[in-house]
Design a protein that fits this description.
3 domains, mainly alpha, single chain
Length: about 375
């Protein structure tokens, strides 16, 4: 309880241990929920639990539903582990069997691929076509050549030109040149046909060889893809078995109801009560100090505001314009004997009025202030 003093009141004392204990007691409250109950109390002499809110002992009790749920899940987990154990014994330990899968192919069987064709391989067929083309063309031109020769002979004979004469020879020379030009053109066309056929046969042979190569590459890809798919299927089946076993082993029992299932209490403030105790002690110490100087501090404040209640005598002795009266006031408030300070506060105004009426006594008072305040 606060006690009245001269200038204020004291702060009640604080017991930190008691505050800490009260915080702990407030955090220890009974809780009831679907998963169970948390009850606080104490332990008796025979070890029996005695319920009472705020005590340090705690008792956690599962609800019937939570207990049944936990036990059922534990049975399921144990069943899963037993099932997984039996299946683990049947797991294959050997590598994946590839006996029934196609053999891996990575090389081309060149024995099944024809040789790279050469242009000269088709020279004979090209020559045969050239000769056949020429002969066929010649047989078509020969009747026309003979008809033109007979016509020329008839024309020369009709003109009366002798055989073997100059005019006759000129006409026949021109006819021979026309015949040779036609046969030359036929020969060139026959050679072109032969070369064209040679190129065509070369392209067909080369395309056939490339197709053989592509067919073998495609077959290798299909073969290897079938092998890969077969291995992936075996791996998938083995992985599925391992995944199911892992799932069975992953069934964890339900944790029994504990403190983590209830509302967690707030943190207890340990340092705060000690800080409150220290602050209370400092406040009481300050209140005690203020009690002895409360009146003078109040009057001092008024003087600082210009009222000057504690400066009657000093201002009368030194005068309003001499700031030494301020130092006298500070000395009187802080360093003067308490008895003198009380007399000064009670009778200072009357003494100042008397000194104003009897100024011959001011030097005596001034000498006292000079000695105590400025030379002391």
């Amino acid at each position: 309880m606060a006690k009245k003093g001269g200038g204020g009141s004291s702060v009640p004392s604080i017991n930190p241990q008691q505050l800490i204990q009260e915080q702990a007691n407030q955090n220890r409250f009974n809780q009831y929920g679907p998963q169970g109950n948390l009850t606080w109390g104490s332990v008796g002499a025979n070890g029996q639990f005695q319920p009472k809110t705020g005590q340090a002992a705690a008792y956690v009790q599962e609800s019937p539903f939570q207990q049944q749920y936990r036990q059922g899940y534990e049975d399921l987990a144990f069943t899963g582990m037993e099932t997984a154990a039996s299946r683990i014994q049947n797991l294959p330990l050997s590598p994946i069997n590839t006996d029934g899968l196609p053999q891996l192919q990575s090389q081309i069987d060149w024995s099944k691929i024809g040789n790279v064709p050469q242009s000269s391989d088709f020279q004979g067929m090209a020559d045969q076509l050239t000769d056949a083309t020429y002969q066929a063309g010649y047989q078509r031109l020969q009747p026309e050549i003979q008809r033109q020769e007979r016509r020329l002979e008839q024309q020369l004979s009709n003109r009366g030109l002798p055989i073997g004469g100059e005019a006759w020879n000129d006409a026949y020379g021109q006819q021979d040149r026309s015949t040779n030009d036609a046969l030359s053109k036929l020969a060139l066309d026959s050679v072109g046909m032969g070369r064209q056929e040679q190129s065509r046969l070369f392209g067909l042979d080369l395309t056939g060889r490339n197709q053989q190569l592509q067919d073998q590459v495609t077959g290798m890809g299909l073969n290897n893809a079938g092998r890969t798919q077969g291995m992936q299927e075996q791996q998938a089946l083995r992985g599925q078995e391992l995944g199911e076993i892992a799932s069975l082993l992953g069934l964890q029992p339900v944790q029994q109801t504990g403190f983590q299932n209830f509302f967690q209490p707030g943190q207890i403030d340990v340092t705060g009560p000690y800080q409150m105790q220290q602050n209370a002690a400092m406040a009481n110490q300050q209140a005690a100090a203020n009690s002895s100087s409360g009146l003078m501090s109040g009057l001092f404040g008024l003087g600082a505001a210009g009222i000057g209640l504690l400066c009657w005598v000093a201002r009368s002795v030194y005068g309003e314009g001499d700031k030494r009266w301020l130092k006298v006031r500070d000395w009187m408030m802080k360093k003067a004997p308490e008895r003198l300070r009380d007399l000064y506060i009670r009778h200072g105004d009357a003494l100042a009025a008397w000194l104003d009426m009897n100024p011959q006594h001011k030097p005596t008072v001034k000498a006292f202030f000079d000695r105590e305040v400025f030379n002391g």
